[in-house]
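Sample pair:
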Amino acid sequence: MGISVSILLIAVGAILTWGVTTEAEGLDINAIGVILMIVGILGLVISMLFWSSWGGFRRRAAYVEGGPVRTTTAAAPRRTTVVEEEDVAPGAPPP
């Protein structure tokens, strides 16, 4: 369940709890609204926990006594491919 679904469940639960005044026989609309809000809040908290742990927002640093602190690693230079085209006269054999 994502963050948007959690917020949607919270909103629907709040509407059912405080916005709907109709009563259905054999169905407690207020209880359903509270349940949806609780499930939405739990889903939102769990989504935020996973988002922070998988999102790469944690700082990782190594401390070495007397040495510089390096938090990033240098990437290898990218390879580039250069394509050179030559104009060939029509009817001439390829080089």
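The radius of gyration is 30 Å.
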